[in-house]
Amino acid sequence: MARQEPRDGLERELERLDGAPYGRYRGLAGAWRLGAGRTLRLVRAQADPFAPPGRVALRIDGREAGFDPELWATPVRRRALAGYLVRCAAREARGERAYHLDAGGQEVLDRSSCTVGADGSVTLRLGVSLPGPRRRIDGREAWRLLGPGLTRLADRALRAGALEAARVREFVETVEDAAALRAALPGLGLVGFVADGALLPRRSGADDRPARGAGVVPFRSPEELRVTVTLPNAGEVTGMGVPEGVTLIVGGGFHGKSTLLRALEAGVWDHVPGDGRERVAARADTVKLRAEDGRRVERVDLHAFVDHLPGGADTTDFSTDNASGSTSQAASLCEAVEAGARVLLIDEDTAATNLMIRDARMQALVAKEREPLTPLVDSVRSLHRDHGVSTVLVMGGSGDYLDVADRVIMMDAYRPADATARAREVAAVPTGRRAEAESFPGVVHRRPDPASLDATARGRTRIRSRGTDYLVFGEHEVDLRAVEQLTDGPQVTGVGLAVELLVRRGHLDGRRTLAEALDLLEADLAGPEGVAALLSVHDEDFAVPRRYEVAAAVNRLRALRVLR
Fold first, then answer.
1. What does the DSSP assignment read for 205-241?
2. For 408, which of 48, 281, 419, 459 could close a Cys bridge (C-beta 3.0–4.6 Å)?
3. pLDDT in the model for residue 2
4. Residues 347, 397: contact at Cβ < 8 Å?
C-alpha cells in the first residue's frame, strides 16, 4: 500500500468542522503538514469527549531536528536521545492538561512515546483530549492544540537549537556507558557491578529518586572485590564486581543488604543522570525471584525441588491453580531458567523459608521420606556448575548457605566488606546437616498452546495495564505483583503487546518452545522495526519489555495451556 502523503490545511478543515458533531473528528485521521519538516498524524480520534484521549504522532525530520549525527549513530544512542527529548517535551507540556505524555521515570527504556530514527528524525507520540463542549467540535481550540501548541512544543523540546547541548550529550553518554558496562560483565566473569560513589538508597517505596541527606552513604567497594572497567565516555571507573557463582549478601537488619540487592535488580535497566545508580549494572539475563502464594502453575517440572507429594501428584509435570509459597518460588525459578535467565536474585525476606533451607535439627525431627521439599541450598551450586546459572542471595538468618557460597559480602551501615574468609572459618565447624540433593537436573522446555493466549474480549483486542501490578489481557487479569523488575504501567502494557505479537506472528505456533519463541521476539524488537513491531499491535503508550517479564506474564495467565 502506497504511503499517504501529508495533507495541507488542517486549520482550514477544523474551521469548517467547528460546531459539527464530535464524531466527525475521526474524518481527520491521517497525516497533515505543520510547516517545513514537520508532520502531524492523527492516529485515532476520540469517540466522544469523555472517552480516552485521541492519539497523535508529531514527526520532525532529521534536518529540522538538527541533532549532531553522533547523538543518533547507534540504537543505544537513539534510545537515549529519545529518552531525553520526551522528558523535555513532558516538562514543556506540563501546563497543558489536554496533552498526555509518557516520559517514564528513573529508567531509560525504549518507549513508544518518543523515538529517534536512523535518519535523525524525531517522532513524539502523545494523547490529546480533543475539545468538544456539548459533544460538538470546537475547531478553534482544536487547532490551538494540534497546530500552534504542538509546534511550540516541538520548537522548545525537540530541536537541538532549543536545548543545552552539554546536557543532551551527558544524558546520551550516561546511557551509552551503562549499556556498555552491562554488556562487558560476562567477559569479566561478573554478574553485577556497583561503582564507587553510587547512591543506592531510594527516597521511599513510592519514590524511586535517590535518597538525600547526611545519612546517605555513598557506596565504596571492598578492596578484595574492586575492579576497574573502561567505559566509552567516562573512561576508567572503579567499583565492586559481583562474581559469577553463588554470592551471599549478609549483615544485620537495616544495614543495607536488601538495598544492595534492589540496586542489582534495577541494574538491568539504564538510569538517568543524577539517579545515583547510573553505573550500577547487572547482566541483562538477571531475574529476581520471590514466593508468590496463590499463583497458577502450568505443567512445570518441579521434581528438583518437590517430590513424592502426599496426594501422589506427578511433580515432573506439575500444575496447580493455587500454588503455595514454596511451589510458586520453585516454579518461578524453573520458568526463569527456561526463559534464559543466567543470574537469579533472591532475598530471604520475600522467599519461602522451607524451599530455602532445612537445617540439621529439622532433618533429625522430620525424616526425608516425609518431606517432599528439597531446599535450594542443596542445588544452588549445581545451578552454576552444571548450568551456568549464578545466584545472589540476601541471607541474614541461615548460616547453612555459608557452606555453598563462593563469595560473602557483609553489609555494615551500608558499607560492604568481603567476609568470605571469615565465612569459611565459620563453615568449617560441622553442623551435622546432610545434603538432600546432588545436583540440579535442569529444566524441561514447554510448548505453550497459542490458542490459550487470546487477547480479545468481545471481538476486540484488549490489552492494558493497571499500574505495575496487573495486566489486562483479553478476558483475563494477570497478577504481576511478584514480577519485581517491571518499572511502570507502560512497560506492563508492553508485556501484553509482546505476548500478543508472539501469537500474531506465529512465533508461538504449538511446535516451538517458549524459549525459541522468545528468541524470535527479541530479534523482532532488536531489528529495524524496534518499537514499530509493538505499535503494529497497539497505538497506546508502552515501553519495550525484556523476554523474562514476557515469559512471567505467559506463565501467570490462568488460561495458559501447555502442550507436551
1. TTEEEEP-STTPPPP---GGGEEEEEETTTEEEEEEE
2. 419
3. 44
4. no
Q: Please, how many CA atoms are within 13 Å of residue 219, restricted to the half-sphere of its CB?
A: 27
pLDDT average, residue stretch 350-370: 95
Question: What pLDDT sits at residue 1?
Answer: 38
Residue 353 has pLDDT above 50, yes or no: yes
Q: Are strands 415-418 and 476-479 parallel, antiparallel or unpaired?
A: unpaired
* Contact between residue 472 and residue 464 where contact means Cβ atoms under 8 Å apart: yes
Say what angle helices 514-526 and 547-556 make with each other, to 10 degrees.
Answer: 140
Question: How confident is the model over 249-269, as a mean pLDDT?
Answer: 97
Q: Do 221 and 272 touch, CB atoms closer than 8 A?
A: no
Distance, CA of 164 to CA of 45 (rounded, Å): 35
Q: Residue 416: which of 196, 188, 266, 230 has the closest Cα?
A: 196
Which grid cell sits at 146? 494540534
The CA R_g of the chain, rounded to the nearest whole Å, is: 26
In degrees and rounded to multiples of 5, residue 7 shows phi and psi of -95, 155
Question: In angstroms, rounded to a whole number, what is the distance separating the alpha carbons of residues 284 and 343?
Answer: 9
Cα–Cα distance for residue pair 9/401, rounded to 1 Å: 71
3-state secondary structure 86-136: HHHHHHHCCCCCCEECCCCCCEECCECCEEECCCCCEEEEEEECCCCHHHE
| Predicted TM-score (pTM) of this structure | 0.96
Best CA proximity match to 553, nearest among 443, 477, 467, 444: 477
Would you give the distance in Å from CA 227 to the centre of its chain?
Answer: 27
d(CA 275, CA 307): 45
C-alpha cell, 502: 508472539
Q: How far is 154 from 389, CA to CA, in rounded Å? A: 47
Copy the grid coordinates of residue 23: 464524531
37: Cβ–Cβ under 8 A, 6 or more apart, which residues? 60, 61, 63, 64
Rounded CA-CA distance 1/224 in Å is 62
Cβ pair 71, 169 in contact under 8 A: yes
DSSP string, 453-466: ---EETTEE-EEEE
Place of cell 552454576: 384
The pLDDT tens digits for 205-253 are 999 999 999 889 999 999 999 999 999 999 999 999 999 999 999 999 9
Nearest-5° angle of CA 48, CA 128, CA 140?
A: 80
